[in-house]
Amino acid sequence: MARVPWVVGVSGASGTPYAAAVVRALLEAGEDVDLVVSRASRLTILDETGHPFRDAHAQDDLRRWLDRGADGSPDAFATDPARVRHWAPGDLAAGPSSGSYPVRGMLVVPASTACVAGVALGLSKDLLQRAASVTLKEHRPLVVAVRETPLNGQTLRHLVTLDEAGAVVLPASPAFYAGARHIQDLVDFVAGRVLDAAGVEHKLYRRWEGHLGSGTGGSDRDAGGTGPGGTGPMP
Ligand SMILES: Cc1cc2nc3c(=O)[nH]c(=O)nc-3n(C[C@H](O)[C@H](O)[C@H](O)COP(=O)(O)O)c2cc1C
């Protein structure tokens, strides 16, 4: 079978645990992933995990990042990143820079306001932005998980442009109705909504069932849940 991956673009907004949760869940769902980590996001990954992300050591650095829990525990997950293909952000000859390269769509997680602007304006200043523009022109699914607060009028206008172009604008905005008890639960909620928008099955969060208070019993993680993002109880 031909490999048809999801492109995951990680830009330099805060929220690198969201990206890790999305990649883990895609792999768990049996999907292939093409990963583009922007230059700026090397700083957020370093800041939020304490570890570098280097193109020359992408597989090792990726495994360490994917296995890290949102609370900082180094081995909260055991991820096999073999189905992740990494592309350097400056590689404008990479597969996802062309519409003829087969992909299912693209998830930008997290999306910086700079990235939002670049995609809205069609700047293609790097592979991440080019791949997002290609996704739009090919009318493939594009999910943009913007992370910034507050939002100025300029960014709001760019987000409207993306919405009108067919993207799903998905603020990285955790909810509390699913019984969140741990940082990972909040991260997984946002990651789960990203996968919902992409139409990929997952068990990252407990869905609303129409009953107030159903989330007060805690998350599935408390009950030893082992969804795609879970390894059972977290400390
Ligand atoms: C530690 C850190 C956190 C940042 N957090 C955000 C953020 O949450 N949202 C945002 O829009 N930009 C944030 N920035 C700024 C972006 O990294 C910056 O605008 C960069 O140019 C984005 O480039 P990129 O879109 O190519 O990744 C942050 C920068 C640093 C160093």
Compute the average pLDDT: 93
Q: Which homologous superfamily in CATH is the superfamily?
A: Flavin prenyltransferase-like
Strand order of the largest sheet: 3-2-1-4-5-6
- Give the termini separation: 41 Å
The overall strand count is 6
Sum up the overall morphology in one term. globular
CATH topology-level name: Rossmann fold
The largest pleated sheet is described as: 6 strands, parallel
Would you list the SSEs in sequence order as H and E?
EHEHHEEHHEHEH
What structural category arises from helix and sheet content?
alpha/beta
Count of individual domains = 1
Q: Which CATH top level class fits?
A: Alpha Beta
Layout of SSEs?
Elements: E1 6-10, H1 16-28, E2 33-37, H2 41-49, H3 58-67, E3 84-87, E4 105-111, H4 113-121, H5 127-137, E5 142-146, H6 153-164, E6 168-169, H7 183-198
Parallel strand pairs: 1-2, 1-4, 2-3, 4-5, 5-6
Helix pairs in contact: 1-7, 4-5, 4-6
Bound molecules: flavin mononucleotide (FMN).
